[in-house]
Amino acid sequence: MRRSEREVKEISEIKAIVDECKVLHLAMQDEEGLYIVPLNFGYSFDGDKFEFYCHSARKGRKIDAIANNAAVAFEMDCEHGLVEADKTCGYSYTFASIIGSGKAILLDGEEKKKALTLLMKHQTGKDFEFNDKQVAAVSAIKIEVEDLSAKAHRSQIYLRPQFT
């Protein structure tokens, strides 16, 4: 990492970034080339290793790509904010981000239910149960993380984007 002063190494801080992020960008490759898609996600952490869980339609380019090549990369980011300055080149932007790579696995059965439950817990903070019909209607993907790094650029003074 070029800006080593921005590297986040404490696992509690990395977990806090994951907790705040709600969208994971999943990159994969198929015969058409590179492909990246934003996905809502959930996760598990066993004290040493993250596993991320996403859902998808049962068919499509993403599912075909994973079935043929399990190697994936991912990115998530949050804590966005513009930092003002007196001079143009003094402006900056705050963020926290995580990037990594791993292996994507298409799930079924109880693992699929677990994935959907973790996804909803992360997105809503609530516990949900899924019946067999709901589970059968979607695909679920587990990303076994093999490499992960976190980075943050934080400032006390920033402007949150305004939407009108």
From TrEMBL:
InterPro entries: Pyridox_Oxase-rel (IPR024747), Split_barrel_FMN-bd (IPR012349). This is Pyridoxamine 5'-phosphate oxidase family protein. It comes from Phoenicibacter congonensis.
